[in-house]
Design goal:
Length: 196
Amino acid sequence: MQNLTVGFAVCGSFCTFSRVLPVLRELAGEDFTLLPIFSAAVYGTDTRFFKAADFRAQVEAICGRPVVHTLEGAEPIGPKRLLDALVVAPCTGNTLGKLAGGVTDSPVTLAVKAHLHNGRPVVVAVSTNDALAASAPNLGRLLATRHYYFVPMRQDDPAGKPTSLVADFSLTLPTLRQALAGRQLQPLLLGPAKMG
């Protein structure tokens, strides 16, 4: 898996950012060249979880390059064949909908469209409260679309949030490895998280 360039696109499921940073560090430790890509919301929104500038600085330090955060920055990904694979982690319900509908009005969705033009894998780590409700048709559509691979996911709180799904971010690297070989990591749907 050496000498491969992986895009790492981050969408605004802000509560999962603390789980994204270890994934980036793991990928960097595998000698991937990493290209970070942020949605506009991630690039400019301060939250109770992270200040935007602090999160950006951590990601840029791990990846060793500036974050792509504009449409102009994302567009060359396809024509220049910049990536061997693209990870979207976390992928919100909003972004799922845009990807399923072919909407490319953000740096992340344009990066995916440009990358898919080359027939290369997109690894999606879902994190949305409505995955089993309004976002379910979009999830289903992408599950049946070529070149999309999903990080295995589970209901994170079946009693409190019965329509929510969150990827097990610790499985991002194995999913990426399988995706590069044209296979979906299984099982895709995981049981409840172990407590304690």
